[in-house]
Write a structure and sequence with these properties.
The chain is α+β, with helices and mostly antiparallel strands. It is built from 10 helices and 16 strands. The chain has a single domain, classed as phage-related protein like fold, CATH 3.90.1690. Strands 7-16-11-8-10-9 form a 6-stranded mixed sheet. Helix 2 packs across helix 4. The mean pLDDT is 85.
Length: 337
């Protein structure tokens, strides 16, 4: 089969490429691993997020036959948000396929498919890191673009105020066993505070992704070490500071970022876990005729031949995902005092 015919074969059809890029085995980033965000495809390029300002109240006991307690209608707030469009492109040159053969195989198509998949994998890696970057912004209420400009300020969009930061005092000088509990006391009321903000909805746990400096200061604080003393956890804590640990009802974790995808060194963010609808991802369709008015997928890919149909083929990958916290006022920051 000639290369021109290969480029026009099913290997490079949009449906085949889209299925292939969605099937790539890019390791999920940390926030994706936790499953914080509820993912769903939508057939539109924007979504309306409806916030219900409701509380979970206790109903009174009444005599049999009495009129039931009427339910209060929650006030509703609708916020329309545009779903970001993130396309990337790579080029597969005809020269890259010169004499290509899959090792141990005479089947040229296998080798060409491998070259194609290598390009798709690179694009998916980039889109996966971008998605993590947006989600890292979402759990802090401020989603940034690659150049650091603001894509979405969730506090402004939902007209709420960012909660005051907890100034974490990690002073060690002069610390004695009699001071045990002073560190814990600084964040002991977090879960109650979060539940109140969420209208008494239960919070299953609290995750605190940390910058390097804050994590090290908390993990190596004598109060924490003393709590874990003579346990395997204490050994792990002292020997491998990259591991997470639980203390004071909070899962502390040095966020495993790199480059721009990282927490500020002296900061953390206290994130409620197990709250339905708190963190959501909504995927719009690609800006292609084949995807119009269909529910969006996490990834898309398509191929375009050069005008001569002889020299190269462009592969485009894209994601169209909106990743947000619907109640950003519950995202409590922490920083070293």
């Amino acid at each position: 089969m000639s290369l021109v015919n290969v480029f026009k074969s099913s290997l490079f059809k949009t449906t085949t490429l889209t299925a292939a890029i969605n099937a790539t085995e890019t390791p999920p980033q940390r926030i994706a691993q936790l499953g914080l965000f509820e993912e769903q495809g939508v057939p539109t390029t924007s979504v309306v997020i409806e916030r219900k300002n409701s509380r979970l109240d206790i109903a009174p006991v009444l005599p049999r036959g009495a009129d039931p307690t009427p339910m209060k209608d929650p006030t509703r707030q609708g916020v329309s948000l545009v779903i970001p469009h993130v396309p990337v492109r790579d080029r597969l040159m005809a020269d890259e396929l010169q004499d290509v053969r899959e090792f141990g195989s005479e089947d040229q198509l296998v080798g060409i498919e491998a070259a194609r998949d290598e390009k798709l994998q690179t694009m998916d890696d980039t889109l996966t890191v971008t998605e993590e970057y947006h989600r890292l912004g979402a759990i802090q209420g401020l989603i940034l673009d690659e150049d650091g400009s603001v894509l979405l300020d969730l506090y402004d969009e939902f007209e709420v105020t960012e909660p005051a930061a907890i100034e974490i005092d990690v002073t060690r000088e002069g610390w004695t066993i009699g001071d045990a509990g002073l560190l814990r006391a600084q964040f002991s009321g977090l879960k109650t505070q979060m539940r109140q903000i969420l209208g008494n909805k239960p919070v299953r746990g609290i995750w605190a992704p940390c910058g390097d400096a804050l994590y090290d200061q908390v993990a190596n604080h004598p109060e924490v070490i003393d709590t874990y003393r003579a346990t395997m956890e204490a050994k792990d804590l002292r020997g491998d500071p990259s591991e997470s640990f639980t203390y004071g009802g909070v899962i502390w974790e040095k966020y495993p970022g790199y480059g721009d995808v990282e927490m500020d060194a002296d900061e953390c963010r206290f994130i409620p876990m197990g709250v339905p609808g708190l963190f959501i991802s909504r995927y719009a369709p690609a800006n292609w005729f084949s995807a119009v008015n269909r529910k969006g997928l996490p990834r898309y890919a398509m191929a375009t031949l050069d005008p001569t149909g002889e020299k190269w083929i462009d592969l485009e990958g894209q994601t169209n995902g909106l990743h947000i916290c619907t109640r950003p006022e519950v995202l409590i920051p922490g920083r070293l005092k």
